[in-house]
Write a structure and sequence with these properties.
- The structure holds 2 protein chains of 2 kinds.
- By secondary structure, chain A is an alpha+beta fold.
- Chain A has 3 domains: 87 residues; 48 residues, SH3 type barrels (Roll), CATH 2.30.30.60; 82 residues, Ribosomal protein S10 (Alpha-Beta Plaits), CATH 3.30.70.
- A 5-stranded antiparallel sheet of chain A has the order 4-3-2-1-5, with no helix packed on it. In chain A, strands 7-8-6-9 form a 4-stranded antiparallel sheet, with helices on one face.
- In chain A, strand 7 and strand 8 form a beta hairpin.
- Chain A is rod-shaped and about 115 Å long.
- The N and C termini of chain A lie far apart (99 Å).
- Chain B is α/β, with parallel strands linked by helices.
- Chain B has 2 domains: 118 residues, NAD(P)-binding Rossmann-like Domain (Rossmann fold), CATH 3.40.50.720; 95 residues, Alpha-Beta Plaits (2-Layer Sandwich).
- Chain B has 8 helices and 11 strands.
- The longest helix of chain B has 16 residues.
- The N and C termini of chain B lie far apart (52 Å).
- The chains are: A alpha+beta, B alpha/beta.
- At the A-B interface, loops of A face loops of B.
């Protein structure tokens, strides 16, 4: 019978245990990915897949760390290397990590959904799509703004979607003339654009200021992107009545 | 409000009349695919602008007018066309995108594509049947926007009545009226007796809880 060196015997045993840990980790991570993907699918397929993948890598990492510790290599040295790698990853991928955290926040808290009208910081518009890293918003002017999801963690979100109508105020500046004539023109122009609104447009105020007349209107609008088109219609309406107007 | 209604189905007829009632001075544009139907629609709905379009041109129309359209309602006789048009409207950020379903089994597909407002005209069938046949617990209406639920529960058991009274006392966001077997309506549950029906209106979460209680007690 061959007598084995006890040190070699011990090392072989540890290698076998480490291999078993790695195999177990592999199967456990696969099982966890499938189960978690199913469990989180209510938050969206893409999000569930990504989260399950992150947890899978975490399990693999833990398994490898356990296997290494079973091998009884110099744990201190390994810990330092792992910590350094982690810090490097966190620093270099800070924005990506923040965006992923924001995605988690958006998926669980659901402060808005697609088609909602929201204001976040200085940006206001309709949510076109919510992605893993960014969210697309279409503004008043019809511009497409792509916002990194981390922005939602730093700025308050105002969801204005409960109300179908948004009241938009327009300021008209008209050269000085009889107030009766201006009021008549405003009423006529408002009745012309009324079919484009949902509710009654209102004349909020009208007054003389220096050599001009200032008129403030409130328009109940559903699609705020229509505002530019409506402004052109209002201007045209006044011009057709012989009145020059500036709209703000 | 400027609304685009696509299709000339029976459902579109109902939709056009409803829009006229809700927004009498609004601008309604109807799109149809055959000149015969366009003619009929123009006569039936003189207040609407009826346009003849090729099936494959509708998406371009939606995209070209998305910045001035307030709502797109797709009510064609084909759910695949409805889905195409709704997707085009959604991608163009039209604020209100509504589809009227032909086959209720397609609802899931529309939801997956992110169409939030789906009208399923068939959903009324089980509700009406349950009310007529005296089902134990029935959801009458679920508001598509505000998480409000209207439901009815048959009071078939003394325990159920006690349980509901207790739950109602604890809920601040639910109101109830009781209709006795004789048809008398009261808002006080103290006058409720067996065999009558309790009608609830309130938050989806609270009423769902009460319906669960009712179903649990009935099962026991």
């Amino acid at each position: 019978m061959i007598e084995m060196n006890p040190v070699l015997n011990d090392l072989l045993l540890r290698v076998l245990i480490a291999a078993a840990v790695l195999i177990l980790t592999y199967f456990l991570s696969r099982y966890a990915r499938v189960s978690l993907e199913r469990a989180f699918s209510k938050f969206g397929a893409g999000f569930a897949k990504k989260l399950a993948e992150i947890i899978r890598y975490f399990i693999i990492f833990m398994g490898v760390a356990t296997a290494v510790s079973v091998l009884s290599l110099d744990v201190m040295a390994i810990s330092v290397i792992i910590a350094a790698v982690l810090i490097f990853l966190l620093v270099s991928m800070r924005d990506i990590v923040l965006n992923l955290a924001a995605e988690l926040y958006l998926a669980t808290r659901r402060p808005f959904k697609e088609n909602d009208w929201v204001r976040v910081g200085e940006i206001e518009g309709t949510v076109k799509s919510i992605g893993g890293m960014d969210t697309e918003i279409i503004t008043y002017e019809g511009d497409l703004v792509i916002i990194p999801n981390s922005y939602f963690l730093r700025n308050p979100i105002v969801n204005k979607s409960q109300s179908l109508v948004r009241y938009v105020e327009l300021k008209l500046t008209i050269p000085k003339m009889k107030l009766d004539k201006v009021e008549e023109a405003v009423t006529e122009v408002l009745s012309e654009i009324k079919p484009e609104l949902l509710g009654e447009p209102e004349l909020l105020s009208m007054g003389e200021k220096e050599d001009k007349i200032e008129v403030v209107l409130s328009l109940p609008i559903v699609n705020v992107r229509k505002l530019r088109w409506l402004t052109a219609k209002i201007t045209k309406g006044f011009y057709s009545r012989g009145i020059e107007v500036e709209v703000e | 409000m400027r609304t685009l209604l696509i299709g000339g189905s029976h459902q579109a007829y109902f939709a056009a009349n409803a829009i006229r009632e809700i927004d009498p001075e609004g601008k309604l544009i109807m799109i149809e695919f055959t000149s015969e139907k366009v003619e009929v629609l123009s006569k039936t709905f003189p207040f609407a602008e009826v346009i003849l379009q090729e099936i494959n041109e509708v998406e371009s129309y939606i995209k070209g007018n998305a910045s001035i359209l307030d709502a797109v309602i797709s009510a064609t006789e084909s759910d695949s066309l409805n889905l195409r048009y709704c997707k085009a409207a959604r991608e163009s950020a039209v604020p209100l995108v509504i589809s009227i379903l032909n086959n209720p089994l397609n609802q899931e597909i529309f939801l997956k594509e992110g169409i939030t407002y789906i009208i399923n005209p068939h959903s009324i069938i089980p509700i009406e049947l349950s009310e007529i046949l005296g089902g134990s617990a029935n959801i009458l209406y679920r508001s598509p926007k505000n998480n409000v639920l209207v439901a009815s529960i048959k009071i078939s058991d003394e325990r159920l009545l006690l349980e509901l009274k207790r739950t109602l006392d604890q809920s601040s966001d639910v109101s109830a009226v009781f209709v006795s077997q004789a048809g008398e309506i009261t808002s006080s549950l103290n006058e409720a007796d067996l065999g009558g029906r309790l009608y609830l209106i309130g938050s989806e979460r609270s009423i769902d809880k009460m319906l669960k209680v009712a179903r649990k007690v009935v099962r026991r």
